[in-house]
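Justification of computing resources. Each target in the renewal requires a structure prediction run like the one illustrated here; the chain below, 246 residues long, is used simply to show the kind of job we budget for.
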Amino acid sequence: MRLTWLGHSTVLVEAGGARLVTDPLLRRRVVHLRRHAEAPTVAGRLDAVLISHLHHDHLDAPSLRALDPGAPVVVPQGAGTTGAIRSLRRDVHEMAAGDTIAFGHVRGRAVPAVHDGRRHPLAAETPSLGFVFEADRRAYFAGDTELFDGMRELADGLDVALLPVWGWGPRLGPGHMDPDEAAQAAALLRPALAVPIHWGTYLPLGRHRRLQRLLEEPGPAFAERVAQRAPEVRVAVLAPGERLDV
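Resulting structure tokens:
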């Protein structure tokens, strides 16, 4: 299994002959956010694009249009009717927690996430999901979630957990984890390897100097907390665009 963190919650997963991308956000500017890492490209065939929830920093239609047009899009149940998804004119699969789907030799399972997944506050309620991928290795992509006890039951024998450790602004609202909470999640999950995501990529326009530390600190802080809470879990702090063979 090869993982390439492309920034924020976007990960290219290559396993079992399949290529999957999670929550693609590839643009230099998205709404009021500016990217502070090189804007990546994902060339070539993809077997699926997985969307954990409908927030603009996880479901970005222009980024999706830059990907393989033949790749199906997997979304939470009820999300397929939203305008952002319909406008793509792609093959769409809706999933609820517990549902499974296969991409070549990779088996994917949708798992719960505790996060408000609506596109905007007045939109209809839509769930958030995480995903577990399994081929010769087993990986958990958390999407956006807060810490919850049910994480213990998500998967046995995880090889890697991709865990959100911050966001894009100076504060975190409900449904997110900071480095210490993400370390607690690692202690519940007990993966062989944990990789921090959802940090170090975007900041609000005009806030770069004041918030520079948010591009640098959350990943290493997560590694320090994991060393204290779950020392048997190895942590790999990647830079956007960096690859990791599991």
